[in-house]
Amino acid sequence: MNKTVAVLIYPDFQLLDAAGPIGAFEMPMRMVSPSPYRLEVIAMEPGVVRSSSGAGLEAVSPGRMKIDTLIVAGGAGSRTTMRCAKTLAFVRKQARSARRVCSVCSGAFILAAAGVLDGKDATTHWGASAGFQRRFPNVNLKPDRIHVRDGSVWTSAGITAGIDLSLALIADDLGEEAARATAQQLVVYYRRPGGQSQFSPLVEFARGEGRFEPLLSWMREHIDEPLHVETLARRAGMSPRNFARAFVQETGVTPARAVERMRLDLARERVERGGDSMSVIARETGFSDPDRMRRAFLRAFGGSPQALRQLAVQH
To answer: Which of 88, 105, 117, 128 is labelled catalytic?
Structure first.
């Protein structure tokens, strides 16, 4: 018997948050017989629901539908929908009855408002993370993750991460080969594991015109050297205490976190490109030894350097 995958939308949802999972789950329906899934687009108010782009999707009422996997789309309308008592009651009910409850991007706000994420690990788009953490302090937010699973609750980052989430759900149901075949049909990377980073906004602000741009450029050029806060503060012409405070205000991360993020980005690129040994990459990106680099990769990406290199080779 096929499983019902229901994508919940609402006014001003993000179109790709819904279309990505719909397209992903469609592939096994074509490739596997009998079809493992039944797809439904649902809304509290059925009919054509307009997305934030103006384009709409036809949605049906969930009624007495037996839902196996609920996927809540994100979008600008999530902030209004998270205050809709009818929607929250429906989500709470599905958290008790459905096998899985999931969100894409800011759909996590709706799950959190319903209490589904209390005490659980979760993620959302990095740009919404600060506001999410302030509003829902009981949720253990993992702002760098592409998608996070905590028991029967799955959350994912922004927009196209909904496809990564869907591939993980398909792998959970049908195995990795089915998920990989789905990714090939969609012409997207089959990213495993889901702990891969969202690519921190550090990459963006490092290219800007902020007061620490010269320092950030110097850090990239000297990434293989010890970059303690005292060293960075001296380079910036500030006391360590004032430097650390100003750096967080400017960039949103601590100096130590910025250094590790830079090292991770550089090391990950070289790991996936291949050619150099892990020892060489660790030494030349400032991790000093492969074990230290491996621990950092596990924290940030959810997988070891060797696992990420193997994935890159497969693609």
So the answer is: 105
